[in-house]
Amino acid sequence: MNNCLYCTYELESSITWYTILKRESREPQFCEECTSRFEIISGARCKVCSRSLYHLEEQFVIDGLCLDCHRWEQNPEWQNVLSKNLSLYTYNEFLQDLIARFKYRGDYILIEGFKKMLLKVSTELNFDIAVPIPLSSERLFERGFNQSEAGLVSMGLKPVHALSRSHSEKQSKKTRQERIHHEQIFLLVDGMDLKGKSVLIFDDIYTTGSTLRHASRILKEAGAEEVSSITLARG
Amino acid sequence: MEVNYLSLFKRFFSSQDTIFDYSSLNRNPLSSFDFSTNLQQFLSGRALLFEELSEFHEILEEHIVHGYAGWFQGLSVKNGQYICGRCGNCDKHLFTEFPCSRCSHSCVYCRKCIMMGRVSSCSKLFTWTGPTFQFSRQLNPLAWEGTLSEAQNSASQQAVEAVEQNKELLVWAVCGAGKTEILFHAVEKALQNGKRVCLATPRTDVVLELVPRFRTVFPQTEIAALYGGSDERHLAGQLVISTTHQLFRFQEAFDVLIIDEVDAFPYSADYSLQAASQKSRKKISSRIFLTATPSSLLKSQVKRGKLNSVIIPARFHRKPIPVPQLVWSGSWEKSFRKKKIPPKMQHWISFRLQNSIPFLIFFPAIKTMEQALPLFQKLHNDIAAVHAEDPDRKEKVVSLREGKVPGLLTTTILERGVTIPRLEAAVIGAEELIFTESALVQIAGRVGRKADFPTGDVTFFHYGKTESMLSAVRHIKMMNKQAREKGLVDE
Ligand SMILES: [Zn+2]
Ligand SMILES: [Zn+2]
Ligand SMILES: [Zn+2]
Ligand SMILES: [Zn+2]
């Protein structure tokens, strides 16, 4: 397939010695035009969540952390729960459309277009196992796949299903405060021992960071040494 | 609620389940069953995914058991090739696999129609198999006081005849002929006979433009507007105005299928439309194609006597169509790179600016257009650029119409549907592939639309003449000649 994964524009065939010698079929990818519409988060980023600090007023940046992360870290209950999140791109309109097609329309293969970037970013993190964010069984049936698992699989990782959902309510119906202080939304799968393990989790978007932190907390309570995360987008 | 929903889902999708083996669709429904008329109206003539039937999940099962609804497999395999049961796609590049949690297998899915929700190996498409919903016969559905021109009238009569006799017809009408009015009597005839009509066009913009016009002239008729993101999908609609894409959700639904602007997407339209229209129309039905620039496929069908056609070579206002000028302007790309507008082009624009003539300048690509925009803004600050994904596209066209901006740079997106008094048009890089004969004819068709200003300049600036440019000029001259011969223009 020599067309852009997203816009189906025909990709220019760059024949190099490498491709001739290896006779490799090309991996699915995005065209130049589409790639140029991804906004890499540039400049200073929050040390924890990858948020760009560039547009933030001074009072919203504390010791290299955005105010949100600073608040999380001030709370002894949440301190150090998530060591680091790396996001590939800003959640702009283009990525919003692309993620919607991937997640809601169900165009699974789009994740393959991010493979190279995900692999590159994952080398900056330290982990022994990869754990997907679980979906409720209703949601999983509706979508037909779990986007978090799809991301990990695209990186060639074997997801360890250490977490399950404790209830199925839609997250977006609640306010941020409710979400943050809500009772646990994830449970540890029986018999999971994560003692001394470094864990990687993946999600499509980092918005408030509360989903990732709730998941991380359970993993840390189960003995994980540290938990870090990768997301496609930083909202 | 949610548990119920999930268990239903599981019963429909688990691979071991055999209760729902009703894949044959021609079962005779049991007469004793008290079926839901809502479901009948909703599902008649459609083929929908389980997810699209959310309001009917609870009652779907009993309708299947009693033979009033049925399903067929979303994907089928023929000669080792996948075929999508919804969109008819059989291009192997547009199928791919994913680990499916519904069927716990690696499931193949169609990417061609993915924006309508995923059709995969384990998907079922549900249809109505009970008695078809009968639309009412409307006595006097048409409330229109206007009159047709001589040329429109003869086309209108043929369209009515096509509806009455379930025939096919190509209406080849030049830009500005007033082709929508040609349909009024044909649609009226269909509604009087209790027929279901679909007017399909490739572009959402056109749907949005046609719907209010038809709602005004057919005030009692239920009209459903269907396009990506429309909220009228639940309406049955005796008259459906839809993007061609949405046609894929229908199955043997329409007695009359009218396809407007058949050629709007020249590369894919023929194949896709063929599939969509075959699927959505009834076996006995009529089909009317409406276009200013028929594809070579349609033209050859006319030539071989396989398709009836009627040509309207003249505009409603009885003046000839402006013939484009071809002007060599050297390497415009090089010129833009040097931050200069080629002199002949600059002269063309300055003249329009001095005389306050609104203009459109068509570019072959967004990138070149955006690079060139600052150069044009040096000539006039308010010149703006539009392209397909520009959220302010409509507002910008309105400002051009109202004289708030002197002119717009645009991609081919504005080649259709824009009618602005006194408008003139130029093409930059007319030799580029994207400017097909039909695109160029459409662009020329933007000029001289209004009876008060029936003329105007159309210039194709180029770096070498192409066959498309020459064909476009020939096409327009031929239409003008025919119009003169038939006495349809006043000069
Ligand atoms: Zn692309
Ligand atoms: Zn942060
Ligand atoms: Zn399809
Ligand atoms: Zn499946």
TrEMBL record, chain A:
Species of the source: Peribacillus deserti
Similarity-based family: Belongs to the ComF/GntX family.
A Pfam family reported for this protein in Swiss-Prot or TrEMBL: Pribosyltran
Annotated protein name in UniProt: Competence protein ComFC
Source organism superkingdom: Bacteria
Ranges where the Phosphoribosyltransferase domain occurs: 170-234
Signal peptide: none
InterPro entries the record matches: ComF/GntX_DNA_util-trans (IPR051910), PRTase-like (IPR029057), PRTase_dom (IPR000836)
Gene3D superfamilies: 3.40.50.2020
